[in-house]
Amino acid sequence: MIRKMVADVMTRNPITAHPTTPLKQVILTMAENRISGIPVVDDSGKLVGIVSETDLMWQETGVTPPPYVMILDSIIYLKNPATYERDLHRALGVTVAEVMTSHPIVIQESQSVADAARLMHDRHIHRLPVVDSTGRLAGILTQGDILRTMAQELAVTPVA
């Protein structure tokens, strides 16, 4: 059982982006640093979103218009056209704000690593932005951070 707190194992001062950061810069930064996501902060350091590899895939794949039928000169969409518009915006976006996931799932630095692991598992996410009590970014916690913590605990725990 992991007994440490998020603040003990998170990466402090992670690479961040601003909503106005060009996507080209974020793509290069992620590739050069071999990271799969970057927290997005405003001018005061408050977390406003996260941009991940998945968010950026729209740039390469594009989008397919929603299927529709025409009846008596009316267009009836078979899928929500608002979803298509959001995805199109992501595919054509040029700044982080246009593709990021707003209001990401976060964890407080005072919570346990076990809580973080449970949240990541339940929500199928790979990284959690860590925020302080004011919503400012304090760090980032990844599945790799948790795995390393588990390995450290195994190394110090005697085998029965």
Which short descriptors sum up this protein?
alpha+beta, four-stranded mixed sheet, three-stranded antiparallel sheet, about 20% strand
Task: List the SSEs and their pairings.
Layout: H1 6-9, E1 11-12, H2 23-33, E2 37-41, E3 47-52, H3 53-61, E4 68-71, E5 74-77, H4 81-92, H5 96-99, E6 101-102, E7 107-108, H6 113-123, E8 127-131, E9 137-142, H7 143-156
Parallel strand pairs: 7-8
Antiparallel strand pairs: 1-9, 2-3, 3-6, 4-5, 8-9
Helix pairs in contact: 3-4
Can you describe this structure?
By secondary structure, the chain is α+β, with helices and mostly antiparallel strands. Helices cover about 40% and strands about 20% of the residues. It contains seven helices and nine strands, in the order αβαββαββααββαββα. It has helices at about 5-10, 25-35, 55-60, 80-90, 95-100, 115-125, 145-155; strands at about 10, 35-40, 45-50, 70, 75, 100, 105-110, 125-130, 135-140. A four-stranded mixed β-sheet has the order 1-9-8-7. Strand 4 and strand 5 (about 75) form a beta hairpin. Helix 3 (about 55-60) crosses helix 4 (about 80-90). The longest helix is centred in the last third of the chain and has 14 residues, at about 145-155. The protein is globular, with a radius of gyration of 19 Å. It starts with 5 loop residues before the first helix and ends with a helix. The model has no long low-confidence stretch (mean pLDDT about 85).
Describe the sheet with the most strands. Answer: 4 strands, mixed
Side-by-side strand order of the widest sheet? 1-9-8-7
CA(first)-CA(last) distance: 15 Å
Approximate strand percentage = 15-25%
Average pLDDT number:
83
Q: For this entry, what is the oligomeric state of its chains?
A: single chain
Q: Can you tell me the overall shape?
A: globular
User: Which residues sit in consecutive blocks of at least 5 with pLDDT less than 50?
Assistant: none
